[in-house]
Write a structure and sequence with these properties.
The complex is a heterodimer of chains A (235) and B (204). With 235 residues, chain A is of the alpha+beta class. Chain A has eight helices and five strands, in the order ααααααββαβαββ. The radius of gyration of chain A is 21 Å and the shape is globular. In chain B, the strands form two sheets. A two-stranded parallel ribbon of chain B has the order 1-4. In chain B, helix 3 crosses helix 4 and helix 4 crosses helix 5. The chains are: A alpha+beta (235), B alpha/beta (204).
Chain lengths: 235, 204
């Protein structure tokens, strides 16, 4: 089954409310802090982008639905910090008590990972370096542009029950056409769970809107998804 | 294991989100795991240095220089890297061109993937449930909510960023912009036009 984050095509969300183009980058000061703390903790090297996406999307549906964007980030970060044993549950509970009475935590010992903490002088280089996902792969591309392909059914992570995947439910079982080959990329279904990068060919696949939706808005419309080879089968 | 929790760690933190951030920041700082000066640097970068002006410069140059545009559409990464527009959430860029026949629009239905080096941090609406759920199913109704109506003969191609590819829409150059400098052209390029939810207009 899908998780609550997999919402492409869902009904009932109401209108989109555009903001002015010049609205502040961060609507609240704490949004900026939440983003910065998350990026800085990522630099500790205890997880990858797929792990962190999965940490957000496997929040309880009730939490995922009620949390704003950066609250999801914070909740995912708290999960990762505890699961990767960077912090303990007691640490978090203690921090909450300290923040509540304004005293700050007392007598905290330096952390074994402290040497890895991102320094201000290294921020620009770290952000500029990014985290490219392309890798050499022994897996030969099975498809070429123009080939008809179908997204595997059932969808979902084939390695880990309930695990991370980047095949949206709305495309499961749908037939499309290879638009382009992006080379080989890290497979999130594996990398999110510490099972290795398992790179494989990645394609842009174009789907006619009426292959995805019972009531397509317009006959000529299309949706393009980036899909890994193991998500696809030949038609 | 997917680690489904009923007693998630975040529930140990204060209920108020601003206080939750403060509690985490204080704890992580005291343990030496984060440096508040580094946080300030990250925030300054995305608040003041990296934003849609980068993307607008790329679009204006593509409108002005056919060779640049051809190179950008063929393989954006080296072209953008040369301009310094590379980095986190922009490691693999693809630029897609709007034409009278086809309008492009970008979404990430699974989270909110977005080309940070060219457009900065995504706006709230891009991250909203409404945009994520509806952009793929009814792009034209969504466009109407942005005040955009496409001609009958224009098809819509929605790019759902399901991998580490990030998409930038190259809008059509507006009429009556002959002779404008790249800077003047860049001023016509809105953030939303590079996501595909706006159409640039010529000078008034």
């Amino acid at each position: 089954m899908s998780r609550v984050h997999d919402m492409g095509g869902r009904f009932g969300d109401g209108p989109v409310k555009p903001e002015p183009q010049d609205a502040p980058v961060f609507a609240e000061e704490w949004h900026a802090r939440a983003l910065a703390i998350t990026l800085a903790c990522g630099a500790l090297g205890q997880w990858n982008i797929d792990t962190s996406r999965h940490a957000r999307e496997r929040l309880a549906p009730l939490d995922y639905t009620r949390f704003s964007y950066y609250e999801k980030w914070l909740a995912g970060l708290a999960s990762l910090l505890v699961e990767k044993q960077v912090l303990s549950a007691e640490d978090l509970a203690g921090a909450a008590a300290a923040a509540g009475d304004g005293t700050g935590a007392e007598g905290v010992a330096p952390h074994p990972l402290a040497a890895r903490a991102l320094k201000a002088a290294d921020v620009a280089a770290a952000l500029a370096k990014g985290g490219p996902a392309d890798r050499p792969s022994p897996i030969v591309p099975s498809f070429a542009p123009g080939d008809a392909v179908r997204c595997r059914r059932p969808g979902g992570n084939r390695l880990v029950e309930g695990g991370h995947t980047r095949l949206p439910t709305y495309a499961v079982g749908a037939t499309g056409q290879i638009l382009r080959l992006h080379g080989s990329h890290v497979l999130p279904d594996s990398a999110a769970h510490g099972l290795g990068e398992a790179p494989e060919p990645l394609y842009a696949v174009v789907f006619p809107a009426d292959a995805l939706w019972s009531h397509a808005e317009h006959p000529g419309d299309e949706v393009v998804l980036d899909l890994w080879q193991s998500y696809l089968e030949p038609v | 294991m997917p680690h489904d929790h009923a007693d998630a760690p975040h529930s140990l933190l204060p209920p108020d989100p601003a206080l939750r951030v403060k509690a985490l920041e204080t704890l992580l700082t005291e343990k030496g795991l984060i440096d508040p000066a580094a946080l300030d640097e990250i925030i300054d970068t995305y608040q003041n240095r990296i934003g849609p002006a980068n993307g607008a410069r790329v679009v204006a140059r593509a409108w002005s220089d056919p060779d640049f545009k051809a190179a950008l559409l063929a393989d954006a990464d080296p072209v953008l890297a040369e301009l310094g527009y590379y980095g986190r959430q922009g490691e693999h860029m693809v630029v897609v061109e709007n034409t009278p026949e086809q309008h492009n629009m970008v979404v990430c239905t699974l989270c909110s993937c977005y080309p940070w080096p060219l457009l900065g941090i995504p706006p709230g609406w891009y991250k909203s449930d409404a945009y994520r759920s509806r952009a793929v199913r009814e792009p034209r109704r969504v466009l109407a909510e942005f005040g955009v109506t496409l001609p009958e003969g224009t098809s819509v191609r929605v790019w759902d960023s399901t991998a580490e590819l990030r998409y930038l829409v190259l809008p059509m150059r507006p009429k009556d912009t002959e002779g404008l400098s790249e800077d003047a052209l860049a001023a016509l390029v809105s953030r939303d036009s590079m996501i595909g939810t706006d159409i640039p207009e010529g000078p008034r």
